[in-house]
Design a protein that fits this description.
The chain is of the alpha+beta class. Helix content is 42%, strand content 20%. A 4-stranded antiparallel beta sheet has the order 2-1-4-3. Helix 1 crosses helix 4 (118-131). The longest helix has 18 residues, at 5-22. The chain starts with a helix and ends with a helix.
């Protein structure tokens, strides 16, 4: 099982709605079970520098089956994943905003959001994940 384009669009729509509610334009990416990008939206006035970050947050969440917020905690100096951000040719993002998407307990994709504070990114990602 993986996420298809129709489902990705629903996830993005829910995330966009949350971003609009909080007044923060975002980049929102959805990846499939293989970590491949299915869909991406850059809301009007969202930072262009966050396009790549949102896509990599989705990939990171799927690659490690963990929310990037939690990976960030585990990757601080002295913790078990310190330095992980340098792996995979620098593709690993350790900022809040990436969440794995699960079906029947199995990770089948992920959402990645970037463009606001870590709390905002995570809240928007949660809204998208909830729509899944």
């Amino acid at each position: 099982m993986s996420i298809n384009l129709e489902t990705a669009r629903k996830i993005i729509a829910a995330a966009e709605k949350k971003a609009t509610e909080i007044g923060q334009p975002m980049n929102i990416a959805v990846a499939d079970a293989g970590g491949n990008l299915i869909a991406h939206v850059r809301m009007d006035n969202a930072w262009i520098g966050s396009i790549d970050i949102s896509i990599k947050k989705a990939w990171t969440s799927r690659a490690f089956d963990i929310a990037t917020k939690d990976l960030a905690t585990h990757s601080q100096s002295g913790n078990q994943f310190f330095g992980i951000h340098a792996s995979n040719d620098g593709k690993v993002m350790i900022f809040a905003g990436g969440i794995p998407l699960k079906k029947d307990g199995k990770v089948v994709g992920a959402i990645g959001v970037s463009g606001g504070s870590g709390e905002q990114d995570h809240a928007v990602a949660e809204a998208g994940a909830a729509a899944f």
